[in-house]
Specification:
The complex is a heterodimer of chains A (77) and B (147). Chain A is an alpha+beta fold and 77 residues long. Chain A has helices at residues 11-15, 28-38, and strands spanning 2-7, 19-23, 48-51, 54-56, 66-71. Chain A is globular. Chain B is α+β, with helices and mostly antiparallel strands and 147 residues long. Chain B has one domain (10-23, 32-143): Molybdopterin biosynthesis MoaE subunit (Aldehyde Oxidoreductase, domain 3, Alpha-Beta Complex), CATH 3.90.1170. In chain B, strands 1, 2, 3, 4, 5, 6, 7 and 8 form an 8-stranded mixed β-sheet that branches. Classes of the chains: A alpha+beta (77), B alpha+beta (147).
């Protein structure tokens, strides 16, 4: 079971990569736990989570081949 | 069910002032229009801790941004009697002094065009997944924060 995580904005300064593939992740809570172990700096960062382009607030179950976006506060314009 | 039309708002690099002029020119056959309102965002050479911003590099979650912009466009057209609306936002590097955002609304009378333009700019800045990386003269950077 594959999950593709895209990092945006200042989060890429922490992860040093714009995208990461994870295996065997059941839901967004366990994904965040996994990411915090890989990138402890993310614990200081503010971001919202989108699952297949829809923002989620609560723990969300993930299907195979889900695309995740981790997005810090927007600063366009 | 009709499919929503997703328009691309993104341009690579700065918005060319000549493009702004030609956009205005293109409306001269739409005779029901009595008012245009235009917002142009320009990159500032801010000085932060004695370092000067030379430009902003924009990135986006493009698919989500374009979907979100389609929703903003529908909400603005539902709220104001607009004839048309055009939005162009830069991606990639835009140097200080160059244009990074162009919002253009047109209506029969001025109030709708002015109010719709202002509201659209605010929604673009607050709700589109776009990020600005402010690049300094020594190639260091900080991430822009919208007020």
């Amino acid at each position: 079971m594959k999950t593709t995580v895209h990092f945006y904005g200042q989060l890429t300064d922490i992860t040093q990569t714009p995208v990461l593939e994870l295996e065997g992740i059941a839901d967004t809570d366990s994904m965040i736990k996994d990411l915090l172990e890989k990138f402890p700096g993310l614990s200081q960062a503010k971001f919202s989570i989108a699952v297949d382009n829809s923002l989620v607030q609560n723990n969300t179950r993930l299907k195979d081949n889900t695309i995740i976006a981790l997005m810090p506060p927007f600063s366009g314009g | 069910m009709t499919e929503k039309k997703i328009r691309n708002i993104f341009v690579n690099g700065a918005v060319d002032p000549a493009f702004v002029a030609s956009s205005i020119q293109k409306h001269n056959t739409k005779n029901s229009i009595g008012a245009h309102s235009i917002f142009l965002g320009q990159v500032r050479a801010d000085v932060i801790n004695d370092k000067t911003v030379t430009g902003i590099e924009y990135s986006s979650n493009e698919e989500m941004a374009l979907t979100q912009m389609t929703g903003i466009r529908e909400a603005i057209f539902a709220k104001y009697p607009l004839t048309c609306m055009h939005v162009h936002h830069s991606l990639g590097k835009v140097k200080a002094g160059e244009i990074c955002l162009f919002v253009f609304t047109s209506s029969a009378h001025r109030k709708a065009a002015i109010d719709a333009c202002e509201e659209t700019v605010e929604l673009i800045k607050s709700s589109l997944p776009i990020w600005g990386k402010e690049i300094f003269e020594d190639d260091s950077h900080q991430w822009k924060v919208n007020s």
